Amino acid sequence: MIIKHDPSESPEFRTSVTAEVRRALCEDVGTGDITAELIDFSQQAIARVITRQPGVFCGKPWVEETCKQVDGRIDITWHVGDGDAVTPNQELFKLRGPARALLTVERTMLNFVQLLSGTATLTRRYVQLMGDVRTRLLDTRKTIPGMRVAQKHAVRCGGGHNHRLGLFDAFLIKENHINAAGGIGVAIECARSLHPDITVEVEVESLGELEEAIAARADIALIDNFSLTDTKAAVSLARGKLKLEASGGIDLASIADIAATGVDYISVGNLTKQVVPLDLSMRITGRSAGK
Predict the structure, then answer these.
(1) Which of 9, 124, 221, 243 could form a disulfide with 213 if both were Cys (CB 3.0 to 4.6 A apart)?
(2) Pick from 142, 200, 212: nearest CA to 171
(3) DSSP string for 171-186
(4) Quick check: is 106 catalytic?
């Protein structure tokens, strides 16, 4: 299943953001921020968040939710939105509110934004290297536990697309499923009988297995670790019969060549599992007279 709508517009997305922030604050703040207690409770302050690196910004909903859960009096002035390109030393947003609260939100808020901006930035690099092709770049389920909705949002912000969210919204029949079910054809037939309206994708490891998937009328075939030559052959074989997703060992060095073959999708696990967080900084720059 390739998600075609924007999940960030759904109530489920907001529920997930709320839960992720709640868990993160529980982990970080616990029974209270004892260092912030050094600051007078009435003190107001201004904090500016900048990036030290170029990249793609992502994480606005998590910033807003973190501030809301810590202290609803924090006011945010935004200079960027999710998906915007940013440059070194650019101010991303500014916070005004109780100094204690600003100090408490800092690390949780930055952890979300750094990780998600790193994910969006890496995704944008892959998309740019693919060039002007019809092939879509997909993420995978290789996400940080508990952060799937967040990282998949970041992939969209970087210009990529989402594969299935989990095990519940599409079939992806892989090698172990095929072996346990008794073959590609049997597995696909069973999937159709169980959930006839759900997309059926099957992993194949050879051109022969691709022919089996075509004969069994799969919707998508995942060609796993195919050589460039075999990928081109698979595109010719599958044309007009099913869609192809290339996967397995695809990186920044090989993405352009794979995209040029004409496959429909390329999935890259590194988008969400080998992320370098964007280097951000928050500085309290002065006192505020309050609102």
Answers:
(1) 221
(2) 200
(3) EEE-HHHHHHHTSHHH
(4) no
Q: What is the pLDDT of residues 70-81, one digit of tens each?
A: 999 999 999 999
205: CATH: 3.20.20.70
Q: Which residue has the tokens 């209270």?
A: 32
Burial class (CB in 10 A: 0-12, 13-18, 19+), 230: middle
Average pLDDT over residues 152-160: 97
Q: What is the pLDDT of residues 65-107, one digit of tens each?
A: 999 999 999 999 999 999 999 999 999 999 999 999 999 999 9
Shared-domain flag, residues 239 and 281: no
Q: What is the pLDDT confidence band of residue 2, given thresholds at 50, 70 and 90?
A: low
Catalytic residue among 48, 107, 125, 192: 107
65 labelled catalytic:
no
Q: Which domain holds residue 208?
A: 132-273
Torsions phi, psi for 246 (to 5 deg)? -90, 140
Amino acid at 70: V
SS3 62: helix
107 is catalytic: yes
Our answer to whether residue 68 is catalytic in this structure is no
Catalytic residue among 68, 94, 125, 142: 142
Catalytic residue among 84, 189, 224, 230: 224
Q: Is the dihedral of CA 125, 21, 97, 283 positive or negative?
A: negative
Buried b (16+ CB within 10 A) or exposed e, 147-168: bbbbbbbbbbbbbbbbbbbeee
Alpha carbons 244 and 203: distance in angstroms, whole number: 10
Are 13 and 118 in a shared domain?
yes
